[in-house]
Write a structure and sequence with these properties.
This protein is an alpha/beta fold and about 290 residues long. The chain has a six-stranded mixed sheet with strand order 3-2-1-4-5-6, with helices on both faces.
Length: about 290
């Protein structure tokens, strides 16, 4: 693993290795928790990378799993120390989706389906401000400002000059028509969306109304892949009170197949750009109507 690897990915990689070692010696998570006098959820959180793993945790687990090669133990403990480093977003205090931001920062590609809103990496400041302001519970002005700044900074990763993030988004057509922040904001947002869709590392498709029932009716999801960790693909499901992260190979493959079907049913990128252009005219007309009223 590269020395500069994101700490979130280090936790996921370390957790996956500890899970492999546990299974190799035939122990369940419950058995490990009983023997180390810790909770079973802690084992699960460590193995999925959603809890920091201390060097002491690694040492105790290696002893239980019968790992005798000191080089292996030392390497895993070093990963544990490095995974405790703080990501850039920690400086902003308590921000939503901190785990997801860590994954997004290290991802090599993200494929997402969005049925309600323009995704955060594609949002203009005005559109993002309108979305953040409607968060429940309502943020204070200071909280809203911080969340907006974090959202805009996240976008730097998408256009990193050395390793641009491969983005592919399928939007439900309703996203283009839902007026967020007013018609002027929507016109600016859709112009920006078309600009992004013309970039070589970004693909935008719209799933039209006449597609009817489709595999995405269950809601939003994102599928993240990582160059340095090919076996740690993650499916992210955003929910109101708690987000879900699916990392089992079968789950990732199932969502991958679902996404393939969504891409096939959606308009081509070229037809999508034409539809977005037509919708921009609709919002421009609304803006002109409001101005003359």
């Amino acid at each position: 693993m590269a020395a500069k690897q994101n700490p979130t990915i280090r936790r996921i990689t370390l957790g996956a290795e500890l899970r492999r070692l546990r299974r190799a010696c035939g122990l369940t998570g419950v058995q490990v928790a009983d023997q180390l006098l810790i909770s079973q959820p802690k084992i699960s959180l460590m193995e999925t990378g959603r809890r920091t793993i201390s060097p002491r945790d690694v040492r105790d687990l290696c002893r239980l799993y019968g790992v005798t090669e000191q080089e292996v133990v030392d390497a895993l403990m070093r990963m544990a120390r490095e995974s405790g480093r703080r990501g850039w977003w920690v400086a902003y205090g308590e921000v939503p989706y901190a785990v997801y931001i860590g994954l997004e920062t290290e991802a090599s590609s993200i494929r997402s389906y969005e049925p309600l809103l323009i995704p955060g990496l594609f949002q203009t400041p005005a559109y993002a401000a309108a979305v953040v302001s409607e968060t429940i519970p309502r943020p204070t002005p200071a909280e809203a400002s911080t969340r907006l700044e974090v959202r805009m900074r996240r976008q730097h990763r998408a256009h990193h000059p050395a390793r641009p993030l491969r983005l592919w988004v399928v939007l439900d057509e309703s996203v283009l028509h839902r007026v967020v922040g007013g018609p002027d904001t929507m016109r600016e947002q859709l112009e920006h969306l078309n600009h992004l869709g013309a970039q070589p590392h970004i693909t935008v498709q719209v799933l039209p109304y006449d597609a009817g029932a489709h595999p995405g009716v269950s809601g939003q999801f994102s599928l993240l892949r990582f160059t340095g960790a090919p076996d740690t693909g993650t499916v992210y499901l955003e929910r109101l009170t708690s987000d879900l992260y699916l990392e089992k190979r079968a789950d990732v493959q199932r969502y991958g197949v679902m996404y393939d079907h969504l891409q096939a049913q959606a308009l081509s990128p070229e037809d999508t750009a034409h539809l977005i252009t037509d919708t921009i005219k609709v919002h421009a007309g609304r803006s002109a109507a409001y101005s003359s009223a």
